[in-house]
User: What shape does this take?
Amino acid sequence: MAKYNLTEKKEKEAAYRTLVSPKLMDELKEKILDIILIQKKFKDKNYSAKKLAEDLGTNTRYISAVVNVRFHMNYTSFINQYRIQEAMTILTDRRYQNLNMEDISDMVGFSNRQSFYASFFKLNGMTPREYKVINLAQHPTLAEKPKKRGRKAGGKNKAKDKVAAE
Assistant: This one.
């Protein structure tokens, strides 16, 4: 666990969690999932719990309570799990094979490569690069580049191209 400075945090009991009714928690949970997943706000590196609370017309303590009680994690971990899932999809998609890790990190909403690597390692026990290599080894067709389609300029029809240019 020394790699990436990951430490286990003990959960503390927050009194405000009990102030939110179960019905309101369920309503907020659905709204949070809609905004974070359906609207894909997890990809926005500037989308904070404060912004989410504003969008839902509530406060950050309620957001924190719902995420803690209904998802059993804090807001940052909640958002990062969706970012990592998206990154895992991108890492195994041959259309994105030429992207570097910083590009992928940026695409999924991390503000820097270090936090991307730390979150990825925390959830998967390996770095994004290791994950990519392992998955490409298991699925060699993912490593193949797609075949280009269409004609090259100046290909078989050089004569027609020459006439058209004159």
